[in-house]
Specification:
four-stranded antiparallel β-sheet; globular; 329 residues; alpha+beta; ten-stranded mixed β-sheet; 20% helix
Length: 329
């Protein structure tokens, strides 16, 4: 794209970060290219400079500068030369694939994208499908230690449509979590705005104070699937918004932190967790296919979640695949 465009943000995309808004429309942009355009002031919101993590509300006008072209199909340049064992590894994570969509069962401990001291991540491994327009594109994220369904678009058009489904809340996510204690009520919707704050020597997502201008609305639907006496509960969680660490922060705020969570747990949950890793799994995702019909995707339990289920005596086959199907919908 070689001209400047001014685009009005769809109200349905309210709450989306500026950098993600761009990536949904132009998936070929690298994070480095995009951040350079934003930092240099070439991208503006209602005429004002902005930061990559600025939240759009809907109705603003975004200045879109000339953008780099997408690599030509068949471009022989390779950004990453993967070892055959890496190719075999990532291909082994596939739970669904067609010409437009790729779905992985992301393991716990594998980051979705690279960062400081993070050399191995899903984005690097996508080179197993090729580069340029052959390279699948991320359309949503999972925390490093959360396992489960991760969807990617295999073409720019498919990626844009899939990302749009997330932005318009057409994607229904069901997470499984093991938490400390027995939440009361056993089902409901938690509406609690969240904000990023420095806590001690690290940043955390915490409940926002009333009137906090930095707060992001956050809403999570929850239902108890089973209980292990008074000690722990197996929960189904459905985020209606997509805030960073939303489920972990909301369960902590309820007084029932997710087990195995070193960041949002407390002394009691740490003692109950023992050696368990984070007990949070993106179990099921339903969303429109880019061409036609609906995708209904399920990820088998990770070894980390299987350890938690075994410890507390839960049987994954007892769960209703759609525990929210007859509730509030």
């Amino acid at each position: 794209m070689r001209e400047v465009r001014n685009m009005v943000v769809d109200p349905a995309e309210g709450g989306v970060r500026l950098d993600r808004w761009f990536r949904r429309r132009w998936p070929h942009l690298t994070q480095g290219q995009l951040h350079k355009l934003i930092r240099s002031g070439q991208v503006r919101i209602d005429g004002a400079r902005a930061k990559p993590d600025a939240r759009l509300e809907g109705g603003e006008t975004v200045r879109v500068p000339p953008l780099p072209d997408a690599p030509a199909k068949g471009d022989s340049r390779k950004s990453v030369e993967l070892h055959p064992r890496d190719v075999a590894y990532v291909k082994g994570l596939v739970i669904y694939e067609d010409e437009e969509v790729l779905v992985l069962n992301k393991p716990s401990g594998l980051a979705v994208q690279g960062g400081t001291k993070t050399n191995n991540h899903v984005d690097r491994l996508l080179g197993a499908w090729g580069d340029g327009l052959d390279r699948p594109r991320l359309v949503h994220r999972l925390d490093r230690d959360t396992s489960g369904v991760l969807v990617l678009g295999k073409t720019p058009s498919a990626a844009a449509k899939l990302a749009g489904a997330f932005a318009r809340r057409k994607a229904q996510k069901t997470y499984w979590a093991l938490v400390m204690g027995n939440p009361r009520p056993t089902e409901g919707v938690m509406e609690l705005p969240l904000v990023k704050r420095g806590v001690g020597d690290r940043e955390m997502i915490v409940p926002a104070e009333k009137g906090d201008k930095d707060a992001d609305p956050a809403e999570t639907e929850f239902v108890t699937i089973s209980r292990a006496g008074p000690r722990a509960a197996w929960m189904a969680l459905r985020p209606h918004t997509g805030r960073t660490h939303q489920l972990r922060a909301h369960m902590k705020a309820m007084g029932h932190p997710i087990l195995g969570d070193p960041k949002y747990g407390d002394e009691a949950s740490a003692q109950l967790s023992g050696l368990l890793k984070l007990q949070l799994h993106a179990r099921r995702l339903t969303l429109p296919h880019p061409s036609s019909g609906m995708l209904i995707l399920e990820a088998p339990l990770s070894p980390e979640m299987k350890a938690g289920f075994a410890r507390f005596g839960f049987d994954e086959h007892e769960a209703d695949p759609e525990p929210f199907g007859r509730k509030r919908r």
